[in-house]
Amino acid sequence: MGTPGEGLGRCSHALIRGVPESLGSGEGSGAGLPALDLAKAQREHGVLGGKLRQRLGLQLLELPPEESLPLGPLLGDTAVIQGDTALITRPWSPARRPEVDGVRKALQDLGLRIVEMGDESATLDGTDVLFTGREFFVGLSKWTNHRGAEIVADTFRAMAVLTDHPYASLTLPDDTAADCLFLRPGLPGASPFLLHRGGGDLPNSQEALQKLTDVTLVPVSCSELEKVGAGLSSLCLVLSTRPHS
User: Fold this and answer.
1) Distance (Å, rounded) from C-alpha 71 to C-alpha 34?
2) I need a surface site. Which of 19, 49, 99, 235 has the fewest CB within 10 A?
3) Are 36 and 227 in contact (CB under 8 A)?
4) Which domains are delineated in the chain?
């Protein structure tokens, strides 16, 4: 989302994908997903998009829902973006690999440089990757293997720090970091924003967040989509189409 220094994290666009009916039934593509309240999931997703656009001032791009891709709204899993480069991931589940196609096209249309993962032995989940401005933390998991982490390092020519623990534990307690997005929309004189799961979703996170006095906190809920493994970091991709310093 930026390069070390003044431009770190400054964003101009957010990309999301609509919630399909197949996610509500839990039957799409034979995914065996838990059934959820579709109307509530769509409502929460709409609120997220509204806050990205209206509260944070980002240009919002929404891909249409696809019934054959029940987990398509978790598009943060499909790419790792830093600066003007987007690494298109290779999801661990073959059923999820078609999700990258629409994301790739959208990022190409925005002018990003697209890098593909050509190694079929590699798997990578975008939300297993955290860029600090100096290095990448890559969580090795069921979804991301060592070869996938190596490709992150090779793509961005940076140090990749591998960890067997979720990167959430590196920043906030109670595994809440995956449910936060730190954004600098690039507005002159504006403090950065921290988009986070509100107290109704994660009450144990509030004490930690309240210690952050130099950011504007923007609460949002995704309690229904959480049932299928969604955190805020997986529900959107944020990026900049502006030149990076």
Assistant:
1) 12
2) 49
3) yes
4) 15-239 (3.75.10.10)
